[in-house]
């Protein structure tokens, strides 16, 4: 019994000192099995602050070269693509820089991607190595209001040998962004929130109302709260749909669709009204009141399984066609009768 207790104490002692050893000895962080990467900006002399991204002042038409260190944290060589992008607002109401086809807002005058000379660079960085890349930013030839926002979008390429023990392709690409923000003036620009359009839509069997929110100024909106409600014009006491969203952000001169769920309410033809209130973290407030129309065609297409309303609309349409036909036939008979009397 004494021997067993001695062994137990010995095991507990080994476990305790192993735990202390694990706390004291540092773990290597510069080699990872996955496609780890990191980037660091080398700030130009015109940089405003050192917050981890490029934010510098420009002179009209004067090119400026920026450099960035790209670190490969993986234990194998990696090929990366780096391309400039223009900031826009994603469908969930956040500032994003992902490349691809983007429906830019009509008020956007300058795109960061168009101002960067190098459209895409592909580099190979050795295991646990760092490589410097450079890009040339040429600002507009005239002074511009507000800011121009974009980024350098860094993405890893797939490896042919990136498989696990079961010979399954892991396909674990990694991407990150280095924001670029430039300005030529120190004058502050306040954002302007508008609603260019309100249209019905559908997701599966659910009826939605898409309210397009647009930031029409060359500055960002951050920490925005939006509250709205929709009702038939002239009947403000009955709310058909309401929505509240928090912590939204918008890129300069961009837009996105905020969706209202219409629930079980029938989307009937007629005029509706949107009442919207919004404010951001910088103290800007907006109040928007806007009418929008729903046509018979929209009602048939986008209604939320209210088949009896659709059937009623179709029946009314057929009745109208029948009445038009009867009126046409009656006029034709009258014309024939007049012609016969004239003979």
From TrEMBL:
Residues 39-155 form the WxL Interacting Protein peptidoglycan binding domain. Pfam families: WxLIP_HBD (PF11797), WxLIP_PGBD (PF06030). This is DUF916 and DUF3324 domain-containing protein. Keywords: Membrane, Transmembrane, Transmembrane helix. InterPro entries: Ig-like_fold, WxLIP_HBD, WxLIP_PGBD. It comes from Fructilactobacillus cliffordii. The keyword Phosphoprotein does not apply. The keyword Transmembrane helix applies. Residues 166-303 form the WxL Interacting Protein host binding domain. The chain crosses the membrane at residues 307-328. It comes from the Bacteria.
């Amino acid at each position: 019994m004494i021997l067993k207790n001695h062994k137990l104490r010995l095991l507990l002692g080994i476990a305790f000192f192993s735990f202390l050893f694990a706390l004291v000895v540092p773990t290597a962080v510069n080699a990872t099995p996955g496609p780890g990467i990191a980037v660091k900006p080398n700030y130009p002399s015109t940089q405003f602050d050192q917050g981890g991204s490029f934010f510098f002042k420009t002179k009209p038409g004067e090119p400026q070269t920026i450099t960035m260190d790209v670190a490969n944290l993986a234990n194998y060589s990696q090929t990366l693509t780096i391309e400039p992008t223009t900031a826009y607002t994603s469908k969930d109401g956040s500032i994003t820089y992902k490349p691809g086809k983007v429906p830019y807002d009509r008020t956007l005058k300058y795109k960061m991607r168009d101002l960067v000379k190098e459209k895409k660079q592909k580099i190979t960085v050795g295991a646990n190595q760092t490589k410097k890349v450079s890009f040339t930013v040429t600002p507009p030839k005239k002074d511009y209001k507000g800011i121009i926002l974009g980024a350098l979008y860094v993405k890893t390429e797939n490896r042919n040998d990136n498989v696990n023990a079961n010979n399954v392709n892991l396909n674990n690409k990694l991407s990150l962004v280095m924001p670029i923000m430039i300005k030529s003036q120190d004058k502050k620009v306040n954002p302007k929130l508008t609603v260019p359009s309100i249209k019905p839509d559908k997701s599966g069997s659910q009826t939605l109302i898409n309210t397009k929110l647009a930031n029409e100024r060359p500055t960002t909106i951050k920490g925005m709260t939006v509250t709205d409600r929709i009702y038939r014009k002239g009947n403000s006491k009955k709310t058909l749909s309401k929505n509240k969203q928090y912590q939204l952000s918008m890129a300069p001169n961009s837009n996105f669709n905020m969706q209202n769920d219409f629930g079980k309410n029938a989307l009937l033809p007629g005029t509706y009204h949107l009442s919207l209130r919004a404010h951001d973290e910088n103290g800007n407030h907006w109040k928007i009141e806007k009418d929008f129309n729903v046509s018979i065609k929209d009602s048939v297409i986008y209604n939320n399984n209210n088949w009896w309303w659709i059937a009623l609309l179709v029946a009314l349409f057929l009745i109208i066609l029948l009445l038009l036909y009867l009126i046409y036939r009656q006029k034709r008979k009258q014309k024939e009768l007049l012609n016969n009397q004239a003979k």
